[in-house]
Amino acid sequence: MNCSKSKCVMRKVILITGTGRSGSTLLDMMLGNDPNGISLGEVNALLRPYRPHHLLKDGGCFCDKKGCTFWRDLKKDGEKNLYSNIFDKTGVDFIVDSSKNPLWVKDQIKYSRNREYEVYPVIIYKTPLEIAYSRFKRDNLKGWKRGWIKVHQRLFAILDDFVTVKYQELANGPDSKLKELCDYLDIKYFEGKEKFWNNKAKHFLFGSDTVRYSKKLVYYEEQYDEEKLEELKRKIKVDDSILKKLMKVLDAYEVKKKDEIPSDINNMKISLSDFKTFDRLRMRAENTRYYSINKSMIGLKDKIKCVF
Fold first, then answer.
1. What burial letters (b/e) apply to 228-254, b meaning 16+ CB within 10 Å?
2. What distance in Å separates the CA atoms of residue 1 and residue 117, rounded to the nearest whole number?
3. Which positions ≥6 away from 297 have C-beta within 8 Å?
4. What DSSP designation does 48 have?
5. Quick check: 16 and 122 in contact, CB under 8 A?
6. Secondary structure of residue 227 in the 3-state scheme
7. What is the pLDDT of residues 196-218, one digit of tens each?
8. Structural domains for the chain
């Protein structure tokens, strides 16, 4: 809790989650465009690396400042104390972390108990067709549906309290959508907050490079061609009953509807939740992906540890 003579502000960690290509980097950088906050990107990749560029090598940070050891210093104390140490190091009132991995989200909520900050999970989402379109443009359409379903089922299983942001609304009207979200999070909204490229904070980790190095807003219509969307819709099946149910829950949990969620929607969320996969998912992560990359990239598995 950050206290002054006039007031006390409960520190906040805003956990932005969802599927890949969902717009999490965009929302992260917009919310973090604030002198009292910091936008960090996908923090989980630093502590649980799964690609070669996630590993700290020569420097201690990814910013432009020579000799900066921001992340190297923080990493030494492990992920359980990470957010507390970031608050102490930066003095900000809120942190934005767009780590999308459900295991990371689950663990960070657990670590936050009895801490000096509160965690606010936010799911940003695209429709199944929009996700398929984003994957299709990158020639990576395989498994898109199963991935979209599983991520949201796992998030429904671990998150009791959350809000959602529809990507199309954020991309079409970032100012109004950001104001809604800021009001819910009880952080200050100001004109121009969506212009994330004006933010001079340089400790951002990983996320979409397209967004990260952008100097302007790219609106929805510029990203999605209606004719191509319709053509793709004819090629793939996007009207499965489970897709419709998941969308119904995501739509119902939007910020502006937060206080109006009917019981049948909450029951639908519970019925869609995938509680059974976490033990298997954790075991698979420990024994394969994270362990393997640490061993192969560095040579000694204890030189960089993925904490579970």
1. eeeebeeeeebeeeebebbbebbebbb
2. 7
3. 49, 52, 55
4. S
5. yes
6. helix
7. 998 876 788 888 888 988 989 88
8. 9-298 (3.40.50.300)
